[in-house]
Design a protein that fits this description.
Two copies of one chain form a homodimer. The first copy, chain A, contains five helices and five strands. Chain A is of the alpha+beta class and 161 residues long. Chain A has a four-stranded antiparallel sheet, covered by helices on one side. In chain A, strand 3 and strand 4 form a beta hairpin. Chains A and B meet through helix 1, strand 1, helix 4, strand 3 and strand 4 of A and helix 1, strand 1, helix 4, strand 3 and strand 4 of B. Strand 1 of chain A pairs antiparallel with strand 1 of chain B. Chain B binds a DNA duplex (17 and 17 nucleotides) through helix 3. Chains A, B: This is Lrp/AsnC family transcriptional regulator. Chains A, B: It holds the Pfam family AsnC_trans_reg.
Chain lengths: 161, 161
DNA sequence: ATTGAAAAAGAGTAGCG
DNA sequence: CGCTACTCTTTTTCAAT
């Protein structure tokens, strides 16, 4: 699907604040409210925008600890096997297969370090898991909502002061 | 701040769909529309809800490639130094200091592998960076919006079938 | 302290040019 | 695409528990 500059500006506006009115967004991007609505409807239909969500402070919900866990699996493990196994844990908020020594990287949120340990223990107990290597997060430095930046807009070249 | 079951249900509803009407949420949690609005306002004031955001398919915006990069820094590097340096790159969507051999882990989104390479190159050029170790994401298996799950609700013990 | 109901203000939606 | 008219939501106010 083809996105023009207007679509990208609208998306950026909605990522910033999904509850802005169409009129406000329209003023920001130079369009009427109804034109914005039509484009937003189209962006949802085509799947560019997948939904609208409240941003939550994980701490407020009790998720005070997070960790990244590298997964080393047996030779013939399929990505779908890993996906199926780890998606059963609500603590696993992200998972991906990766290049390098490990086969997959998991992002885990838990209530405390003990909780992290329990989850890792259960994941390590899966038959296809050979070993795990965990890193507890000490402090989060950056956490950008996806879609905030646009590739074409800036090309990621901050002047390295 | 103290969150009761109603607050958590409301948050879960808003994470699921931030554009549901207060009336619909109220019906779902057993409250009137105005009661829901008051609670949402309070949740925003206290910082439990930090905002509302459109969920975007990164691919639709041109972010087709992602990578995780471990950062090994010089002995006396402060977390704030790392934060300052990497937050200048729109491609760095997440960053955290971690336990283990590496000092920090970065999550990068880029348009292609060449782009990932360029960004890593620029980050590695920072004075405090000793070396980096990157893993390109092959396929994303899980990507849960934060706040979808609630610690107290289920305790992360799926029956290991 | 928090709720539900009702009135007023505002925004979403659909059809028109 | 922009404009207008209509409908539904949000927001405020008020009384009650």
């Amino acid at each position: 699907m083809e996105l023009d500059r207007l679509d990208r500006d609208i998306i950026a506006a909605l990522v910033d604040d999904a509850r802005q009115t169409y009129a406000v967004i329209g003023h920001r991007v130079g369009l009427s409210a109804s034109a914005v609505k039509r484009r937003v409807d189209r962006l949802r239909e085509t799947g560019a925008i997948t939904g609208f969500s409240a941003r939550v402070a994980p701490r407020a919900l009790g998720w005070t600890t997070e960790a990244y866990v590298e997964l080393f699996c047996q030779g013939k493990t399929k990505p779908s096997d890993i996906a199926l196994a780890v998606s059963r844990f609500p603590e696993v908020v992200a998972a991906a297969t990766i290049t390098g020594e490990a086969d997959a990287l998991l992002h885990i949120r838990a209530t405390d370090v003990r909780h992290v340990e329990r989850v890792i223990e259960r994941i390590a107990a899966q038959s296809f898991v050979v070993r795990t290597k965990s890193s507890i997060v000490l402090s989060r430095l950056v956490d950008t909502p996806p879609g905030a930046a646009v590739p074409e807009a800036r090309n990621g070249s901050p002047a390295p002061s």
